[in-house]
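Running this now, will post back.
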Amino acid sequence: MTLPETSGATRPRRRRNNRTAWAILRFAVTVLTTFLGLLAVTFFIGRVVPIDPALAIVGDRAPAHVVERVREELGLNLPLWQQFFIYLKQVLSGDFGTSVLTSNPVLEDIKRVFPATMELATVGTLIGALFGVPLGVLAAVKRGSIADQVVRVVGLIGYSVPVFWLALLALLFFYAKLNWVAYPGRIDVVYEYTFVSTTGFYLFDAIMQGEWEVFRDLFRHIILPSALLGYFSLAYISRMTRSFMLNELAQEYVVAARAKGLSETRIIWFHALRNAAVPLITVIALSYAGLLEGSVLTETIFSWPGLGLYITNSLQNADINAVLGGTLVVGAVFVTINLLSDLLYRTLDPRTRSR
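Update: finished.
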């Protein structure tokens, strides 16, 4: 092979490598910019909130000179821009401050409570996806029928009804009246001090340890709040599935498949739904992120010891370090899942790689 031929063969490869490098660089810049913006917004909102961290530490009846000394120790007497850079340095080093409520480092508290939120959101997303996708497919296939109208109304209710109102009704009906589920909380007091969790995910640990009585108790506690979150996830997933399926069923390959005599079941589930699965994965991922950051009211009503309840209790006790740390973690999780879902979408769909 001559030298010009070799150069011609390596030139397209070099261009591909350059495009890949630029794509990675753009993604990294996007991630850094997004997290920096999230950090700035969280910090300045925390400073605008009419809560004095110094008073939260020393109490309302502390002498003025004590309050002023604590403010100086916390750096609250410095300009906002200087406070922000100090906070940025602390966060990057993994220091979110100390919680006034628990006297523990905020990061340790978050590590302790966040698995409960993840467990609740995971079960809720599974419920939403398992029921939302088939309902969305049914609504698209039966477009304009009674089944389609029912699915759309169910989704509309999920978007419109306040979560706290529906949660209270669910507790009244399924717990107080029918006694089908356990009382609010994560685990019965009988097992609270005997069951040892190694990962923080109680359901997983109970299965791995073979504690089936504990598992049944955990299931009775988690099923109602997770079903409630799953219903709101179902509303979003079913609506988007219906939209994606309507678009796929109108494509020419569906007409060609019907002309070849393929069964309607095969066309719907093995062709149309498979092509709609790529954007649908992104929708489910965003729904999961939404449940992680939007379960504050659900955890509060059901006394679920997760991050949402932790933030609520911290806010009620003017624990600004815990509020900022919890809010930052929730925002970071949402942004991370959003970016990863976008990356996954571009990876699975070749049509978006050149954009």
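The two ends are 35 Å apart (CA to CA). More later if anyone needs it.
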